[in-house]
Amino acid sequence: MEYLYEYIDDLLRLQSRAVEKYNHKGVLGDAREEFVHSEIKSRIDNLANRLHKGEVYFKDEEFGQHDIILRKRNTLNSSLGRQIRISSEECAAIIEVKTNAKLTEIRDFEEKSKKLKQSMPNLICGMFCYKINGKTSTVLERSGFKFDQEYQLFERDSSKKMYANIDFILCLDDDIEVNGTAHMKADITYSKGFFLKKEHDEYELFHSAPFSKMLFQELMRADELNV
């Protein structure tokens, strides 16, 4: 089945690049989000009617607009048209979709995830990024990994760890990042794409595509956790 997930990864990238020629920020964001929605709905049974976009709140606290909201089973569908306003108590997963995520946006979502989980510890909070406006190595450092230039791989190192509440971060970028030079002065490179998945108090790092499989797995896990 790996070929299928590779196909979906490529399809998501191609659709994102295809809409870039339309110079309208609102249209670009909506087109990408709707395409991600459509892929999830067509690949995972029994989620289509509970997948939304809209505002999340808890009691008197507002958490703003979110791009992918998975509503719990057996809850009322309170959507008005294409938008929903929903309590976090009725959410199984909340996912941000970013075309080019800033490091500050990841930091802000970490803080938001922490607050959301105070009332809903099983809520899955994730980020889907086509690209990250910063270095992959920086995001991974803040997730508990450091790049070892001698062995040319990421190893666990919590000295700069900042993230602890985001359940997953997916970066679909297939560009190459340069991180220093080897002994023969050749550039040390790796793909900017990755998938970080929280396991207990640490993250597991997956640095080899395809990544769509893990996105679908996280949504199915959220649905089972929040029955």
Please, could you describe this protein's structure?
The structure is a single chain. It is built from five helices and twelve strands. By secondary structure, it is an alpha/beta fold. The strands form three sheets. The chain has an eight-stranded mixed beta sheet with strand order 3-1-2-4-5-8-11-12, sandwiched between helices. A hairpin with a 2-residue loop joins strand 11 and strand 12 (202-206). Helix 1 runs antiparallel to helix 2. The model has no long low-confidence stretch (mean pLDDT 93).
Q: Whole-number average pLDDT? A: 93
Please state the CA-atom Rg, rounded to the nearest Å. Answer: 18 Å
Distance between the termini: 28 Å
The helix-strand sequence is HHEEEEHEHEEEEEEEH
Structural class label: alpha/beta
Strand arrangement, largest sheet?
3-1-2-4-5-8-11-12
Helical residues, percent: 25-40%
For the sheet with most strands, the description reads: 8 strands, mixed
Q: Based on DSSP secondary structure assignment, what is the total number of beta strands?
A: 12
User: What oligomeric state do the depicted chains represent?
Assistant: single chain
Principal-axes geometry comes out as globular
Determine the strand fraction and express it as a percent band. 25-35%
- Which parts are unreliable, with pLDDT below 50 for 5 consecutive residues or more? none
Q: How many helix segments?
A: 5
